[in-house]
């Protein structure tokens, strides 16, 4: 029996996160999107260099190629349409070869999860799921399965994103003499994040970082995309009102609070933040035999609901993640046109 107030399971996806629906595209943005969309919906389309008979897109791949996914790659390539198509096809091939749909299952990566070195819990002020990493809880030797586990958790984080949420909040706690991964492992993870999960990192909060770790980050910073570097927040500040990017950001936020617009200075409300290492009000304790099946169950159920709604919306390339997630949330499905857009 857990002590009163202790929680061992993930928090539910926010029902109504404070995030607006996708904005209307400009004429130029719509033209870029239409070009990429047309490439993948061509009836003759096959994935380049695919094995014999494996060229057509699988259902999971058509669902992955959502309206928002296409736009993420267009933004990541700075609106270069041919490069966007090349990058999307590169990720489609990588997802097959890496085993996203086959090898990388909950059963495969579970040995990496036993100590709670990575877990999903809570949502930041923008509704982004918090993915916690605790290097001090490392329980295995470096190898492919460690990378598989990181990718599996990234995929589960996307499952737990509510309507209008496309990014996650990465929470890294270097307390308790945490061991850092090797440069080669760090570079491999960074390459996967930047190449195959573009525009997915909303913020990276790094707490209790010792001076030796600053040196490590200086070594890997040249390999990190400059945009990603701007999302890194070292030693965020906590007070009775929440977790903030910095003391300066908090003080400026107080000066502009009368506008009613979120400034981004506050990253987490305390009731969405774990107490250990982060001083939140949630007394979360990782108990693998409770947390792991609960996480797997909620993600599988949510994924099944999203697939069901996506099929009801037509099951084609270009359906909006917004429409799918709102359909799951509200229990109803909007009518869509031939391009997968809600009417």
TrEMBL record:
SMART domains xref list: CRAL_TRIO_N, SEC14
Signal peptide: none
Gene Ontology molecular function: phosphatidylinositol transfer activity
A Pfam family per the record: CRAL_TRIO_N
Ranges where the CRAL-TRIO domain occurs: 120-286
Database matches in Gene3D superfamilies: CRAL-TRIO lipid binding domain
Coiled-coil positions: none
Domain of life: Eukaryota
PANTHER family: GH16843P
Protein name as catalogued: CRAL-TRIO domain-containing protein
